[in-house]
Amino acid sequence: MSDSSERLEVWCAGEEWCPITTTATLVGKKWHPVIVHRLLDGGPSGFNELKDDVDGISSKVLSDSLEDLQEKGLVAREVISEQPFRVHYSLTDRGASLEPVIAAMAEWGAEHLRAPEQ
User: Quick check: is 46 in a domain?
Assistant: First the structure.
């Protein structure tokens, strides 16, 4: 992403903490990193496939999350067929570039979290 027109416009540009804030804004919502992770692992997926893969998410929240990720240029939506209506969601190059961030989150979580006691 060397072309500055492809970079995200942010209010805090120039501040040393701005890259952290911007990244947190992109992946800081509860389901966003999970959706990105599922698309990294499974490749392009239909809505119902993603809903099954993201255990516990409602259709409304998944729809809103996918729309937000599309607006931020992380996810692409492609209409596969009109009858029956089917779409596939996939990561854009920008979305796929989050792979090391998502991997680091998974690694940190595996190292520092534990299941609740019964």
Answer: yes
Residue 18: strand, helix, or coil: helix
Number of structural domains in the chain: 1
**Is residue 17 included in any domain, yes or no?**
no
Number of CB atoms found within 10 A of residue 103's CB: 12
What's the number of CA atoms in the CB half-sphere (13 Å) around residue 36? 29
12 is a domain residue: no
**In whole angstroms, what is the distance from residue 30 CA to residue 27 CA?**
8
Per-residue pLDDT reduced to its tens digit, 28-72: 888 999 999 999 999 999 999 999 999 899 999 999 999 999 999
Confirm whether pTM is higher than 0.85: no
Q: Whole domain around residue 35: which residue ranges?
A: 23-110
pLDDT exceeds 70 at position 76: yes
